[in-house]
Amino acid sequence: MTAGLVTAIVSAITSLIVALGSQYFATRATHSLEKTKERDRITGEYLNPLRLYLEEAYARLSRIEDRLQRGDGICDALLSVESPEAINNLPDDWFTTDGYYLMSSCYLTACLFFHMDQVRSKAPYLPLEQGSDTELVNRLFQISLALGKTGGIYYILQSTLAEAMAGKKGRQVISYRTFCEKFRNPQDLVWFKQLVTFYLAVGHGKKGDRIDQAKVAIIDLLRFLEEHLGGGTAIENRIQNQGKI
Fold first, then answer.
1. φ, ψ for residue 68, nearest 5 deg
2. DSSP letters of 179-214?
3. What is the pLDDT of residues 66-105, one digit of tens each?
4. Are 190 and 164 contacting, i.e. CB atoms less than 8 angstroms apart?
5. CB within 10 Å: which end of the chain, N or C, has fewer?
6. pTM for the complete prediction?
């Protein structure tokens, strides 16, 4: 075998190795980019909305606790109606005036149930460390448990409320207005009235332990998400900026 032929063979083999190596690393880079895009999509579509409503719920529960303390165990802002059934006979502007605090508290909680349910259904595919999807589901369950004990918003009912809160495309929650309109329909009211019953009891100072447990569970989940996804929750700043909301 001549030296020229040997050189040609070595050159061809080298070129093949370089080409295969380039293709391998290019494929890995493409796969990594696609994985990053998918992780960002799932985070934006499921986890970030969950974090938002966890913060919203925590802020509202904290404000309710503050009102209970200042009201000697009563939160008058939640007591604008005596029963869920009475809502059907009230004028539309009640939902934006006297009934706003009660109904918006119910709405924020129902929105949280919706996003919790969305995350549960996607837990095995979320961009967390291996095994962390189970930890995530366990933390979600602690929130459900805090709000769903006897006389609360029952666990199975929370899932039903989540379904009822889904918009036309199933990924976005219905608006506050659409939520309020459901209380005009007896067939919808039967599924939503436990929310009102719960917050009426809270307004009378009867569910303080549930509020405390829910807040602890929410903070625990927010810290878990912060650990795995980064970004601060700024809970204290949100509460401070809530003012009289």
1. -65, -40
2. HHHGGGSHHHHHHHHHHHHHHHHHHTT--HHHHHHH
3. 999 999 999 999 999 999 999 988 999 999 999 999 999 9
4. no
5. N
6. 0.80
